[in-house]
From TrEMBL:
Chief location bin: membrane
Membrane topology of this protein: Multi-pass membrane protein
Domain of life where this protein originates: Bacteria
Protein name: ABC transporter permease subunit
Record keywords: Cell membrane, Membrane, Transmembrane, Transmembrane helix, Transport
Organism encoding this protein: Auraticoccus cholistanensis
Lineage, top ranks: Bacteria, Bacillati, Actinomycetota, Actinomycetes, Propionibacteriales
Boundaries of every ABC transmembrane type-1 domain copy: 86-275
GO biological process: transmembrane transport
Tagged with keyword Transferase: no
Subcellular location: Cell membrane
Family stated for the protein in its record: Belongs to the binding-protein-dependent transport system permease family.
A Gene Ontology cellular-component term: plasma membrane
């Protein structure tokens, strides 16, 4: 009897093993396809510019591997003022994350915990706001910023990124998952609403705060059109704008473009890899309550 049961289980285990093998192979193939453009960009940054497109036809192993390694492309980044642009990007992104988290978390707490007239309408407007592409309002918004004297300032670069509707939505969803009894207990113990927010909700919301911070960081780090409109001063240019300036009217420095792209991609990639677990937790928790 035991032998018969074991014999029946063996094909089932074999089928499960085969299914897992197929899924693993498909996942590995998908990963390679996603990594291939990143790999080609890195290889193109490490070879002479004339090899970049000369190896595309016919396709060979040298298409994805540099035949001659060189660091000249990265050396030209310093000559083009790319170091200052990277410093500006880091400063703008860091301030946006810190100030944006403070504003977005307070807004999310009010929308999740406080009961005030029009709360649902405010939340609906906020949801609609982050569905509108920022580039659609960038040009009229830049006119307003110039009128109030914010052109070529760090404040002008930072302000549009600190009130992110998606970050508020994420934090609000997480706050709704925190038992209401904790806030009521804090109120009974004499805490103000600020005390409940600071001592109860924030300490429990580390994954959501990290997820919202990543959203704010990526939004500001990859921004191109807004810095181009509001900060034409070379001293205030950011990394994406500096990369675009390698394409001029007399030619395109593809080597410099690829080198700059590698440097600007490495920063958010490392940040996302480091905080990936927390970001996944925050996205999973955002679906608990709406």
């Amino acid at each position: 009897m035991a032998f018969a049961v074991t014999a029946r289980r063996r094909p089932a285990r074999t089928a499960e093993t085969a299914r897992r093998g197929v899924l693993t192979a498909v996942g590995a193939a998908a990963a390679v396809l996603f990594l291939l453009p990143l790999w080609w960009m890195t290889a193109s940054a490490l070879r002479p510019q004339e090899e970049t497109f000369g190896t595309l036809s016919p396709v060979s192993v040298w298409t994805v591997l540099p035949r001659h390694l060189t660091a000249e492309n990265f050396g030209r980044l310093g000559e083009a003022g790319f170091t200052l642009a990277m410093a500006n990007s880091v400063l703008v992104a860091a301030v946006t994350v810190v100030v944006g988290l403070a504003i977005c978390s307070m807004a999310a707490f009010a929308l999740a915990v406080l009961d005030f007239p029009g709360r649902t309408a405010v939340f609906a407007v906020m949801v609609v706001s982050f569905l509108i592409p920022f580039d659609a309002i960038a040009i009229p918004l830049s006119s307003v910023f110039r009128d109030v004297g914010l052109q070529n300032t760090y404040a002008g670069l930072i302000l549009p990124g600190i009130g992110n509707g998606l970050a508020v939505f994420l934090l609000r969803s997480f706050f709704l998952g925190i038992p209401q009894e904790l806030a009521e207990a804090g109120r009974v113990d004499g805490l103000s609403w600020w005390g409940v927010f600071w001592r109860v909700h924030l300490p429990l919301s580390q994954p959501a705060l990290i997820g919202a911070g990543l959203i704010l960081f990526v939004f500001q780090w990859q921004s191109y059109m807004w810095p181009l409109l509001i900060a034409p001063d070379p001293a205030k240019k950011v990394a994406p704008v500096a990369i675009a300036q390698f394409a001029g009217e007399h030619g395109v420095d593809f080597g410099g473009i690829f080198a700059g792209a590698v440097v600007t991609t490495a920063a958010p990639l490392l940040v996302l890899l480091f905080f990936q677990r927390y970001f996944t937790q925050s996205l999973s928790a955002s679906g608990l309550k709406g």
